[in-house]
Design a protein that fits this description.
membrane; Ionic transporter y4hA; NaCa_Exmemb
Length: about 350
């Protein structure tokens, strides 16, 4: 039997993207030639990452494929956060909070809303497993409350911060809950997270060989490193543009989070168009859980040698948006069926998040 070969472009894009990253890394500003090249490399790396993630998913099956993509992106993102916090000083005090909150809003409103909208426009009504997605969303709400809401109201330390013991508890709780979720998703109740309606002809095609899948897994990691690195490389240009527009500097973190989460966004939309909404929800909620479940424990450990305060508590505006996200998400996921209306509501909440990030 002939083994399935990877397209040539998917083999060429990862090293080329890394090469572009090497040219642009460490530059304060990108010139008129390098900036389009970095943007082109970023877009190509996203497309290649989604392709290789689908190859791996076809080999290992769901929900392992979506889990691999979510964890890989988050691990690289966490490494970037720690690096920036190490070199950022007091200016990086809110970096972890802003990045995790932006990831929650992007995944639970942006990615979910876009997947619901495009999927429902093509298939009118899409079905998913409410007990699986609802359970995952409950873990998201619990972790974001323990990690980002409680610091606003605790009194053991000054400001919206945790004391050392409280931060340690939040880190352990986040890691334990994420580990339990992964156990339930991949072993205990794996069938809960499989697509309820599966009409994808690709699933009946020949699965790639182990060698091809391992090659794609390696290239996937290279692509994700390129995506995060190129997003960081373009951040000085984004900072200059944001400053010139008079917008708050925190908008830069939102824009970088949008770039870093592009692979999940593209993969979720493609799954929804194939009438596999459960895969889209696995990607979105899995990315949200990985963002909290992995970032908070790493930050808790890193705080041992990091200098300066670590601000985790959300402000009033963010608390309102989080409460609205929790209410809307619960009503969406409890039904097990999705239409254009739910997608539009989630996208409107996401639009409000972006608008208030520009005009706080």
């Amino acid at each position: 039997m002939t083994a399935i070969a990877l397209p040539r472009w998917s083999l060429a894009v990862p090293p080329l993207s890394v090469l572009i990253l090497a040219f642009g890394w460490g530059r304060a500003e990108l010139g008129p030639v390098l900036l389009p090249l970095v943007c082109l490399g970023l877009g190509a790396a996203v497309v290649a990452a989604v392709h290789h993630a689908e190859v791996v998913a076809h080999r290992v099956g769901e929900p392992f494929g979506t889990l691999i993509l979510a964890i890989a992106v988050t691990v690289i993102e966490v490494a970037l956060i720690v690096t920036l916090m190490t070199s950022g000083g007091d200016k990086a005090a809110t970096l972890a909070r802003d990045t995790v909150f932006a990831a929650i809003m992007i995944t639970c409103n942006g990615i979910v809303g876009l997947a619901l909208l495009v999927g429902s426009l093509r298939h009118r009504v899409q079905e998913f497993r409410a007990h699986a997605s609802g359970g995952a969303f409950a873990v998201v709400l619990a972790l974001v409350t323990l990690s980002l809401v409680l610091p606003t109201f605790t009194t053991s330390s000054q400001g919206p911060t945790f004391s050392g013991a409280q931060l340690a508890f939040a880190g352990v709780a986040s890691l334990v809950m994420y580990a339990v979720f992964v156990f339930v998703q991949t072993l205990r109740h794996r069938d809960y997270f499989l697509p309820k309606v599966d009409t994808t002809p690709d699933d009946h095609a020949e699965a790639p060989s182990t060698r091809t899948a391992l090659t794609s897994l390696g290239l996937l990691l290279v692509c994700l490193i390129a995506v995060v690195g190129l997003a960081k490389t373009v951040s000085p240009t984004l900072e200059s543009a944001v400053a010139a527009a008079g917008a708050p500097l925190s908008l830069v973190g939102v824009l970088i989070a949008l770039l870093v989460l592009m692979p999940e966004t593209v993969a979720a939309v493609r799954a929804a168009l194939r009438n596999r909404l459960q895969v889209s929800l696995n990607l979105a909620l899995g990315s949200a859980l990985a963002s909290i479940g992995l970032t908070i424990p790493v930050i808790a450990i890193a705080s041992i040698w990091l200098t300066g305060p670590l601000v985790l508590g959300l402000g009033g505006k963010e608390l309102v948006l989080l409460a609205l996200t929790g209410a809307v998400g619960t009503l969406t996921l409890v039904s097990g069926r999705a239409t254009v209306l739910q997608g539009a509501v989630h996208l409107m909440v996401f639009s409000a998040f972006l608008f208030l990030a520009v005009t706080p």
